[in-house]
Amino acid sequence: MPRLHANLPTLLRAMLAGTSALAFVASAQAQETGEEASGGDSTALETLVVNGGSGGVITAEGYVGISSATGVKTDTPFLETPQSISSVTEQQLKDRNPQTLLETLSYTPGTRVGAYGFDPRFDAFFVRGFDVTYTGVFRDNLRQPGAGSSLYKNEPYGLEGVSILRGPSSALYGATGAGGLYNLITKRPTEETLREVQVQLGSHDRYQGQFDFSGPANETDPVYYRLTGLLRDSNTEQLGVPDNRAYIAPAFTWQPDEDTKLTVLGEYTRTKTGGTAAYYNDFYNEGFGSVTDFFLGDPAFNDSIQNQGRIGYEFEHSFSDALTFRQNLRFSALHIDADYVYGWGPYTDTSGVLHPDLVARHAGTFDERLTALVFDNQLESRFETGVFDHTLLAGIDVAKVNYKALGGEAAIDPFDMNNPNFGGSIATPSFTSSNKQDQWQLGTYLQDQIRYGAWTLTLGGRYDWVWTDSSMTDLTTNTTTNTSQDDRAFSGRVGLTYETDFGLAPYASFSTAFSPNVGINRQTNQPFKPTESTQEEIGVKYLLSDYNVLLTAALFNIDQKNGIFWDVVNTVNTQVQRGKLRSRGFELEATTSLENGLSLTAAYSYTNLKILEGSAGTVGNYVSSTPFHLASIWADYTMPEDSVAEGLGFGFGARYIGSSYGDDTNTLKNDSRVLFDASVHYDFAAIDKKYEGLRLQVNATNLFDRRDITCTSNYCYRDQGRTVIGSLRYNW
Fold first, then answer.
1. Residue 286: enclosing H or E segment and its boundaries?
2. Which residue among 35, 292, 330, 525 sits deepest, i.e. has the most Cβ atoms within 10 Å of its Cβ?
3. 303 touches 323 (CB < 8 A)
4. Percent of the chain topping pLDDT 70
5. Are 334 and 376 in contact (CB under 8 A)?
6. Helices marked H in 363-512
7. What is the pLDDT of residues 427-477, one digit of tens each?
8. With 60 as the cut, is the pLDDT of residue 25 above it?
């Protein structure tokens, strides 16, 4: 990484120095407060707000998100954010009890989950038609990198919410894609004591226990803790594909006064599932679009074990009401070791005879490691110039990503579809390839929120430098290809919002995105080019604060070039790059939590995603597995306290997935479908107050067990079937 200029101002040098900034701010605070800093006032602890800050934490009332720091990196009401933004709040998570990130996001506008059917290995999803799996997942406002099969597992029980910013957002966040970003907000220490234990039983022999403890460390010190954990042993609907997990997440907050706060967030997760989970596509006998009932892999050779960990902190200090410094840092690492089998077509024997009922198979193995260090330094200043109020944000962030992958494959005995021969002895293939990649990213950004009466003008710009060194080694010939790549780009956003006295806020914005890609393009044997995108968006938001109702609508146009997608046919399940895409559409969303016990979230989106430049036979077509229409509604109702059924509650949801094409040549068609979810819950305090905090809840996903076929990039999958999970939770 190039040297930075040595003669920067003192604070800026401290910002770039990482943790040394803590010492700088502590020194400045001591000079400012003098002897009063050592005295302290224990009564002040009662008024401190522990659960806030720069990680994107959502301020919400039930299902209705009001504000967060995700939209503009400062805690800003959604109405003032000149871009489409929504949230999955803590109350939504409790009511729906999602078991995966995809279930967590399934009721949010424009979010396409299930494009690869049942697959517990990855949280792969799309928004506004664009894959955001690698570029759109953030954790606590910091980028969560991914490459190849190295994608971090995300445990919903460890989240207190998700804040979603749709559309290109590189003006502040750097490496993001065209669809936007999903900021996963980790559970943080609470000021009030929280104690929760829970047991779950469910479909496919699912057994799970979990706990969540938080509160002040003692009665005198300004230290708060949180410890969240989970242990699960479970099978799934697919033979040989478990869903086992161990998860532990410690956190603590130190807040010596109302101006200074340090929160440390840690996590360790171990997950065991299958190396593959798909069904065999019988292209030869039945043609494209045919999915058999035969498992593509083999239970005897189908383990995927991933260990991952995160440790980081969020530091914030206010020098005055007008000047605040923040520094967020996280180091993360993962290791995934997987074995798999796949069938790729009819078997031809050594004599050249074709056997249509036999499936040629390969066994494969890979060992991948990904480490990432990301940190973001911010200086926020609030001031006035005449009649204008400014919130000026300046920042520098750095990301260092290291990716290593070993892989190998070998032919094994064919599979007999008339007499399945699972369970034979399968030897682990030797590694035949080794890929390594190091990437540095440095970004500087500046944003000004200018307010004049009911108007808010948001101007932001950022410049990124990215340095990537890659090596690809063929271990069979011991030959290595080394490449180096330097990328740099400017990203910007300009948005205008007008907020009326009665809560109506129309807006318009233009934004861009720049995303360097970690990985090798197998078609060119070169590093992937950066993905670039631009968006024009207009919309309106309406907050009926007296009724706790938020209504939003957005109309957008997005152009993207050099996007990455998985090609599972032409290049045997490999990431490739294509030319230009254009997405046009609109979205509607409504959320509310009413005093009568009813909470509701509803969404509709229309997406028209076309290929403007691409391979032969695809130009002018629609991108595969992108439904034109998506709609969803979830409602939860709890009976009133004075009713006969006091303590009883119900939830019901419907998710409509419109028709789409199964390949980019638009020769396959995915049918539309509606999936239903439901829940029932009961609070035992309605029987007797001594049972306060005891709650029984049952959630069903895909209630009527629809298992339709979904084709994506010319390969087809089965939708995940019905799951039912009962949970008994006790809070005290």
1. helix 283-286
2. 330
3. no
4. 90
5. no
6. none
7. 999 999 999 999 999 999 999 999 999 999 999 999 999 999 999 999 999
8. no
Q: Which residues have CB under 8 Å from 623's CB, separation 6+?
A: 129, 581, 609, 610, 611, 661, 664
If you average pLDDT over each of 111-120, 336-345, 599-608, which comes out highest?
599-608
The DSSP output letter for 48 is -
* 321 contacts 304 by C-beta, under 8 angstroms: no
How many C-beta neighbours within 10 Å does residue 281 have? 26
Integer Rg of the chain from CA: 26
pLDDT tens digits along 487-507? 899 999 999 999 999 999 999
CA distance 655 to 613: 32
Q: Show the beta-strand stretches assigned E in 479-573.
A: 479-498, 504-515, 520-521, 526-527, 531-544, 549-567
Q: How far is CA 216 from the centre of its chain?
A: 30
Beta strands of 27-119 (E only): which ranges? 59-61, 64-68, 76-77, 85-88, 111-112
Q: Tokens 């040394």 sit at which residue?
A: 20
d(CA 146, CA 585): 28
Q: Any residues with CB less than 8 A from the CB of 315 and at least 6 apart, and which? A: 21, 22, 25, 261, 262, 263, 326, 327, 328
Residue 337 has pLDDT above 60, yes or no: yes
Instruction: Please compute the mean of the pLDDT values over residues 140-149 and round it to a whole number.
Output: 92
Q: Is 17 helix (H, G, I), strand (E, B) or coil?
A: coil
CA-based torsion, 659, 662, 663, 669: positive or negative: negative
User: What is the model's pTM?
Assistant: 0.89
Region of 56 (left: φ > 0; alpha: ψ -120 to 50; beta: rest) is: left
* Residue 710 pLDDT level (bands cut at 50, 70, 90): very high
Q: What is the mean pLDDT of residues 259-277?
A: 97
Highest-confidence range of 190-199, 526-535, 558-567, by mean pLDDT?
190-199
Nearest in space to 261 (alpha carbons), one of 110, 455, 45, 425: 45
List domains and CATH numbers for the chain. 40-731 (2.40.170.20)
Q: How confident is the model at residue 424 (pLDDT cuts 50, 70, 90)?
A: confident
Q: Please name the residues in contact with 640: beta carbons below 8 A apart, sequence gap of 6 or more.
A: 596, 597, 646
Those residues whose C-beta lies under 8 Å from the C-beta of residue 695, and which sit 6 or more positions away, are 681, 682, 683, 684, 728, 729, 730, 731
Q: Look at residue 29 and give its three-state secondary structure.
A: helix
Q: Are strands 354-385 and 323-348 parallel, antiparallel or unpaired?
A: antiparallel
**Sequence-distant (≥ 6) Cβ neighbours of residue 67 within 8 angstroms:** 58, 59, 75, 76, 77, 78
